[in-house]
């Protein structure tokens, strides 16, 4: 019950935050450019077309009125038409969301599965050879540009060794989506060939996203475990002679995990940001490639839509992380 | 010395830090008899916690035991290390900080159950499973002890998280947890310093009464002479890592022999008298004065005091003092 | 003196210091160090896509320009963007965090809500939108990165100021009649300076990575500027044959970011004895 109240309280912050986000994107698209209509129409559009756009989108109205229009549009799911695809931006984005999510979720799973145990073990064996090796990996992982790592992997595994496909998400045109998550769809259909194909395409793009994420998780888990190890309750448990394995794997781990969980929201944000460049390298048909193409085409509506959309997704993810944390940590309730 | 069940002899402990080596315990000797409440008093930083941790066998990683012996019930604690039967079983612990000494993520009941799973008096050595019969016996015992430490509605309390309890309640639970394994010795390191002044005395008296009823000894550290007077049978005073004087509580306060004890007692605020501090400063453990560490401040100091600290003055009626020129033992 | 000696003993910090110093030297002495200084603006189409060798140490690019020389000049751009953008962000964010942390009223709540909204979107995503609106130019990259980075500093300083606000020495200063400005500048700022220095160092690395991403997306300084991210983007057309093309700028980014991270971590150990290596938090 208290949890429900807490979730409700957190959710109440959503509308103002989203409104703030809309205001930021509105400022970028309507206030920064000296002539938003010109930007919308494209550099070479004739004057008449620019003027028509100006009237059509009310760009000649006072700013507060424009903002009001903008908010009503966004709330009703209208983010304008993409210059490039000639379709509503909102439709484009929704269609591409599953591809990006599939990539991000696999990257996250991999990062957590590898990062947590490595973080715990390197904290327990502090200054051991393993700890030093893990430190080298995390320090490089955090310093690597994701797109560069993506290109290197592509160069090595796809182009030189021919182990994985160079680009795309699946062989052929791809099936009619059920959920849009190809691996999940394949399982739902019982189509193992499709599962294998989509996993082969996933393998490489997942890596440049997962490695920096893993580095962050290792770092926080290690620091968290060390921090908890020096806490008073661990001292008490040792003084009372509780078995070491119980102290570590039950009490220390649980506390450290909560710290790591707070980072998951941040890591997810980095994954979404990394997806823009990594998807571009592998032509992965998700939000990132969409954003990349929009930048190349100066497709203005599409970019602003992408920003709003990604921001909203990120805000929702953070909300979920907040609630999950409250469930795990009794103090937050 | 057949009735001595804890004996610390000439124990020296140093800490290695970036600033150098600090000898924090310098040839400390101390002995306790079964069933007594012993107070370990001294200003903050004099090494009380370090001594308590040495006995518990949980010194920090950077601690180095330079010399000495530490025996408990005939067992060598210093080198063999505290075994499963001793730590948390024969010797238990009441921490200074009842706030941080619980894991915030588990209920009080979970944490007591965890302790009983490994440290219940019914557990036979090496037992890994927590059999239902033992579990329910332990539960009975827990509820009874929680009532004994005057916590109302213990069943409800077990379902609470530590942060839902007040400091006093938490410390009562800690005392219960220290007594649940039916120990022979409880080490209580400033158990009430973190609590509200109004409930300190209450909790200390409770600890004393319950321990005495169960035949457990208590080694109780404090920087407050007043509390030592109220609840201890005997008192040892330490100064800058050296123990100065040990005596029955009435003797300690009534006829102190060590110059430091005298000055310390004189400096206590009494009605009408102005506060008299001891001139000078406590030395740093990184560069302690040689010999008796009190000599720079001691009015009775002579050259010999700088050479050694090992003046063995024959104890009179269990009143031992570590000083080259102690005050006379005043017969009453 | 003591902390200087400790600094030199810390291997991570030393590595970071060396890398960052090398970066600065490369930027300052780009002309004398480079083998083809003219290749930043002019090039030699007859020497297109040559692999590394005696003449072109790290190979040539699609225009026949020497990659090694371009990398050196790219160091200037990298430092410029990192230093200016991070400084702007600090200069905007720190006062906001100070004011919001010092006072407890609706205005400080508002300031923090605003920065929270900024922090609710991944930095690079907002920076993309701004850089795209402003058009590809180096000053726009700097603007986009600082506008999206200040909230991070506001948050950090806010949290530290709030916890300092109850410290005895701050309350004493207030009780003695010091003005808020005086308390903030003379008492709060010195106490949080070490943490700001550490974060700024690590922030340089983060800014370099973000700037490289913008460059890769074509939102950085326009050609022929020797921007490392853009060099990597250009190389893609010529893979897998011109493997050296992307390698050099990528390694440069990796080393430089690593250098700042190591330096920041090391400085934290030296400046902030509360948090030793064990308890360090990422940044
Ligand atoms: N882990 C440690 N490393 C270095 N010095 C320590 C450590 N723990 C305690 N000390 C130092 O040892 C001395 C005695 O500390 P402590 O035993 O806690 O005193 P008390 O409990 O009497 O206040 C103090 O000077 C303290 O600073
Ligand atoms: S040994 Fe000497 S210096 Fe120390 S207390 Fe006794 S008289 Fe004073
Ligand atoms: Mg202490």
The structural domain count of chain C equals: 1
Q: In the CATH classification, which architecture of chain C applies? A: Orthogonal Bundle
Note the overall shape of chain B: globular
What strand order characterises the main sheet of chain B?
A: 6-7-8-3-9-10-11
Major interchain interface with per-chain residue totals: A-C, 60 and 50 residues
* Largest sheet data of chain C: none
Q: Which percent range describes the beta-strand content of chain C?
A: under 5%
Order of secondary-structure elements of chain C: HHHHHHHHHHH
- Unreliable stretches covering 5 or more consecutive residues of chain B: none
SS field, number of helical segments of chain B: 11
* Broad CATH class of the largest domain in chain B: Alpha Beta
- The number of helical segments of chain C is 11
Q: What is the name of the CATH superfamily of the largest domain in chain B?
A: P-loop containing nucleotide triphosphate hydrolases
What's the gyration radius of chain C in Å? 22 Å
Low-pLDDT segments, ≥5 res of chain C: 275-283
**Overall tally of domains of chain B:** 2
Portion of residues in beta strands of chain B equals 15-25%
The CATH class label of chain C is Mainly Alpha
Helix content of chain C: over 70%
CATH architectural type of the largest domain in chain B: 3-Layer(aba) Sandwich
Tell me about this structure.
The complex is a heterotrimer of chains A (333), B (332) and C (283). Chain A is mainly alpha-helical and 333 residues long. In chain A, 77% of the residues lie in helices and 0% in strands. Chain A has 14 helices and no strands. Chain B is of the alpha/beta class and 332 residues long. Chain B folds into 2 domains: 4-232, P-loop containing nucleotide triphosphate hydrolases (Rossmann fold); 238-321, no CATH class. Helix content of chain B is 31%, strand content 23%. Chain B has helices spanning 48-56, 77-80, 108-119, 132-148, 154-158, 167-179, 197-213, 225-231, 249-254, 259-266, 303-307; strands at residues 4-17, 20-33, 37-41, 63-72, 75-76, 91-94, 185-189, 217-222, 234-239, 242-248, 320-321. A 7-stranded mixed beta sheet of chain B has the order 6-7-8-3-9-10-11, sandwiched between helices. In chain B, strands 2-1-4-5 form a 4-stranded antiparallel beta sheet. In chain B, a hairpin with a 2-residue loop joins strand 9 and strand 10. In chain B, helix 6 runs parallel beside helix 7 (197-213). The model of chain B has no long low-confidence stretch (mean pLDDT 89). Chain C has 283 residues and is mainly α. Chain C has one domain: MetI-like (MetI-like fold). Chain C contains 11 helices and no strands. Chain C starts with a helix and ends in a 12-residue tail after the last helix. Residues 275-283 of chain C have low confidence and may be disordered. At the A-C interface, helix 2, helix 7, helix 8, helix 10 and helix 12 of A face helix 5, helix 6, helix 9, helix 10 and helix 11 of C. Bound molecules: adenosine-5'-diphosphate (ADP), iron/sulfur cluster and magnesium ion. Iron/sulfur cluster (SF4) is lined by residues 259-260, 292, 294-295, 298, 300-301, 305, 323-325 of chain B. Residues 259-260, 292, 294-295, 298, 300-301, 305, 323-325 of chain B line the site of iron/sulfur cluster.
